[in-house]
Amino acid sequence: MKKISDMISNEIMTAFEAAGYRRDYGRVTVSNRPDLCEFQCNGAMAAAKEYKCAPAKIAQDVLLSLGDNKLFSKKEVVNPGFINLNLANDFLSSYLNEMKDSCDLGFEKQPQATIMIDYGGPNVAKPLHVGHLRSAIIGESIKRIARFTGHKVIGDIHLGDWGLQMGLIIHELSIRKPELPYFDESFKGEYPKDAPFTISELEEIYPCASGKSKEDEAYKEAAMTATKELQAGRPGYRALWNHILNVSVSDLKKNYEKLNVSFELWNGESDVQDIIPGMVEEFKSSGIAHESDGALVIDVKENDDTKEIPPCIILKSDGASLYATTDLATLKDRMKNYDPARIIYVVDKRQDMHFVQVFRSSRKAGIVPSSTDLTFIGFGTMNGKDGKPFKTREGGVMRLESLLNEIEEEMFNKIVSNHTVDEAEARQTARMVALSAIKYGDLSNQASKDYVFDVERFTSFEGNTGPYILYTIVRIKSILAKYKEAGKRDVAGSINPPANEVEKALMLELSKFNAVMEGAYEELAPHKICSYIYDLSNAFNRFYHETKIISEEDAAKQSGWIQLLRLTQKALEISIDLLGFSAPDRM
Ligand code: ARG
User: Fold this and answer.
1) CB of residue 268 inside a 6 A radius of ligand 1
2) Which of 347, 353, 368, 376 to mutate to test the pocket of ligand 1 (most atoms within 8 A of CB)?
3) Domain assignment of residue 20, given as a range
4) Domains in the chain: how many in total?
């Protein structure tokens, strides 16, 4: 379906043309003075300069050539030359009826392209902490939005599974359990199938080892050596590494599942290590990389840079490859295996420079052709109420799991005190509402901004929150259930033209659905969907308070409202699904 704003614009543009003015002056926007009108066109003011004519005169001409138009119930010129417009009630209802009867509410799919999204990015063996929360939440939402838009989308978690943390764990284990066969270089048998640690042990080992390495230089050296030996393929270390990976990944999967986040690919940094040597050779032989202070680097600065962009380091002077090297190899691998039209990275904005270097190097090296778009979405920090990065009450790093549990408990208490559901259902519901609180709290901010994680505000059933949106959906579900209980069926029927201002306001919000979804993908901006469903929920609740739906005796009127409710429910449910959460039946 055409977007309603395009249909309206088209009428006014045609009228500009018919009146002898340029068509593109006829663009219509949603009114910024809703008290005066619903839509407005400001083109006459701009046209006045070109045609050296009073804007009001141009606007009058346009309205004259527009004539009696069935889209509008009001059209008027306001000084100095605004064209104010209101939609005709039956045009609006027929537009909504078409939406209601179309797949995906009439959203026009785009020609399918393959898009990869690199998000999540947890580091194996380190516990998931809130720092990883944003990447998971934003990445998942962008993935769903891109998919809704019509694209084929592949999410890749890009595990950090190849770094020093592995050597640290191996070294610490060698101290704690030296009898294990993994450390015996002469061992020729088969290594045990079961890991010599549980996930909780693993989560204790890493911070312990990391702490020691900061105080003890020799310890650190040993961990670095273990890392090198692992990377060089020492069999016992490889076997241990596999255990670490497996134990860690199954725990990660559990955690992401709780977040309603899933990945198509569980690739990691380790997966591309084999192609690094060949890639580096190509960099050398093509001459794009050169030596600088013993290191191998690619120059990436450009003439119109406004700030210093340092060279991208490919190999350190000791020959070790780096974070950027791995990312370049990963790009090579992705182009070869998936040939995506676009790759989107959802990573902490403090890694901005890293991605500038990687993207530029990949273009220079011909790894990524200009037909493939590379996008970096850098997100800000999730802060506590004190404005500093979010911590536990004790001041430690907040684990993702604890955060989820804490919010869930908060929601559980609220829901139980509402007495609408029994305890078992309340648990289930609390989980859904908690997720909405966390995700909406995050996604309603522009990704690049830092934000304050305010538990009290995010879990409130009122205001611009996830629970408020869910509450609105639950309210609609409950009216529809009552309608059904009264023995009425709500399958057929159509939305009637609005009978009053609040009803029309709700309908106008609904009519924007397509434009909002399109904009959310174009700008990769889930927050646009949040602000839309907040407006839509407000419009619905105002309508609800002024309308006695269930006790209405006029059956045609009532069934029209039921259809309007169903459409509202659908628009809200599609939206929250794109944000990555869902609504319970009661709360
Ligand atoms: N593991 C990294 C970190 O914790 C994030 C990975 C982001 N993705 C990438 N392709 N570099 O900082």
Assistant:
1) no
2) 347
3) 4-87
4) 3
> What spacing in Å lies between the alpha carbon of 524 and ligand 1's midpoint?
19
Question: Strand, coil or helix: what is 442?
Answer: helix
Which residue reads 């080992």 in tokens? 205
Six-digit token string for 40: 């407005």
Closest-lying ligand 1 atom to the alpha carbon of residue 131: 4
User: Based on the domain organization, do 52 and 172 belong to the same domain?
Assistant: no
Ligand 1 center to residue 158 CA distance, Å? 7
Tell me which of 232, 258, 284 is where a domain ends.
258
Name the residue at shortest CA distance from atom 2 of ligand 1: 121
User: What own/partner pairs with CB < 8 Å and gap ≥ 24 does 402-406 have?
Assistant: 403/130, 403/133, 403/438, 404/258, 404/259, 404/434, 404/435, 404/438, 406/455
Residue 196 in any domain: the answer is yes
Smallest CA separation from ligand 1 atom 11, residue: 327
One domain, residues 35 and 171: no
570 and 443, same structural domain? Answer: yes
Give the distance (Å) from ligand 1 centre to CA of residue 268: 10
CA of 336 to the centre of ligand 1 (A): 21
Q: pTM of the entire structure? A: 0.95
Residue closest via CA to ligand 1's atom 6 equals 121
Using the 3D structure, point to which of 258, 276, 307 is the last residue of a domain.
258
User: Is 169 found in the same domain as 76?
Assistant: no
Tell how strand 373-379 and strand 451-452 pair up.
unpaired
Which atom of ligand 1 approaches the CA of 354 most closely? 11
Q: Is residue 27 part of a domain?
A: yes
CA–CA gap between residue 539 and residue 121 (Å, rounded): 39
Q: Identify the CATH number of the domain in which residue 41 sits.
A: 3.30.1360.70
160 CB less than 6 Å from ligand 1? yes
CATH code of the domain containing 492: 1.10.730.10
Residues 83 and 196 in one domain: no
Q: Which amino acid is at 362?
A: S
Q: Are residues 456 and 555 in the same domain?
A: yes
Give the DSSP H/E element, type plus range, for residue 336.
helix 323-338
65 and 178, same domain (yes or no) = no
For residues 37 and 179, membership in a common domain is answered with: no
- CA distances (Å), 9 to each of 19, 40, 130, in order? 15, 10, 45
Question: CB–CB of 340/371 below 8 Å?
Answer: no
Q: pLDDT per position in the chain (587 positions), as tens?
A: 999 999 999 999 999 999 999 999 999 999 999 999 999 999 999 999 999 999 999 999 999 999 999 999 999 999 999 999 999 999 999 999 999 999 999 999 999 999 999 999 999 988 777 778 999 999 999 999 999 999 999 999 999 999 899 999 999 999 999 999 999 999 999 999 999 999 889 989 999 999 999 999 999 999 999 999 998 899 999 999 999 999 999 999 999 999 999 999 999 999 999 999 999 999 999 999 999 999 999 999 999 999 999 999 999 998 889 999 999 999 999 999 999 999 999 999 999 999 999 999 999 999 999 999 999 999 999 998 888 888 877 777 777 888 889 999 999 999 999 888 898 999 999 999 999 999 999 999 999 999 999 999 999 999 999 999 999 999 999 999 999 998 877 667 899 999 999 999 999 999 999 999 999 999 999 999 999 999 999 999 999 999 999 999 999 999 999 999 999 999 999 999 999 999 999 99
Distance, CA 576 to ligand 1 centroid (Å)?
27
Q: Is residue 461 part of a domain?
A: yes
**From atom 12 of ligand 1, which residue's Cα is the shortest distance away?**
121
Any ligand 1 atom below 6 A from CB of 161 = no
Residue 359 within any structural domain of the chain: no
